[in-house]
Write a structure and sequence with these properties.
5 helices; about 210 residues; 6-stranded antiparallel β-barrel; about 10% helix; 4-stranded antiparallel beta sheet; mainly beta; Double Stranded RNA Binding Domain; about 40% strand; Elongation Factor Tu (Ef-tu), domain 3; 3 domains
Length: about 210
């Protein structure tokens, strides 16, 4: 089942394997998520399951949102997200059912983690695209961190689309593929994956079994 669980990145630490190897890991608190709504091909044109994550106070919930989750018999949720699933996988999920990371990722060796990368504001080409700096001597002045020529001298006579230039750096959806699951703490809902994942500490991430 290709379920995606919403969770929060708690931060990085290090653990020791049974072989005595020290590995850097990111700790993710994944779920628990509650089924809020099921969508079918006959009624909605596609098959999907809507999940809710984290509790929300009723006084901070609109009447429309409160009525939507009340139809499933669950309390208001802070985040709602949708996962497309084949009809045979969605059959075993019913509104109000809770999905935890222990049952979802038991026996999974690798996962894909998607999140919003850290925003670094407007940056130049040196930091944004790792361009090399020109020499700082022998006649070079005022162009120490510039990109150089941007367009062709003749054809097509313009700057081509997709040219690497200065601009917004980070703050976009990023997916890290094939992260190894080093440890699974089903009791506390924690996943320890090797390496780093996108976003800042306490940032939202979506975790699924790896497609690779």
């Amino acid at each position: 089942m290709n379920l995606e669980l919403l969770g929060r990145k708690l931060g990085m630490t290090q653990i020791f394997t049974d072989a005595g190897e020290r590995v850097p890991v990111t700790v993710i608190a994944a779920g628990p998520c509650v089924v809020v709504q099921k969508k079918t091909a006959e009624r909605d044109g596609y098959c999907a399951v809507q999940f809710g994550f984290e509790e929300r106070k009723e006084k901070h919930t609109s009447k429309a949102a409160a009525g939507h989750v009340a139809a499933a018999g669950v309390s208001p949720k802070r985040f709602l997200y949708e996962v497309r699933l084949p009809a045979e996988d969605a059959e075993g999920l019913e509104p109000g059912q809770e999905v935890a990371c222990g049952a979802t990722f038991e026996g999974v060796a690798k996962v894909d983690v998607a999140g919003t990368s850290k925003g670094r504001g407007f940056t130049g080409v040196i930091k944004r695209w790792n361009f090399s700096m020109p020499k700082a001597t022998h006649g070079t002045h005022e162009h120490y961190r510039h990109a150089g020529a941007l367009g062709a001298g003749t054809y097509p006579g313009r700057i081509v689309k997709g040219k690497k230039m200065a601009g917004q750096h980070g703050n976009k959806r990023t997916t890290t593929l094939g992260l190894r699951v080093e440890r699974l703490d089903a009791e506390n809902g924690l996943i320890f994956v090797r390496g780093s994942v996108p976003g800042h500490n306490r940032g939202l991430v979506r975790v699924r079994a790896s497609t690779r």
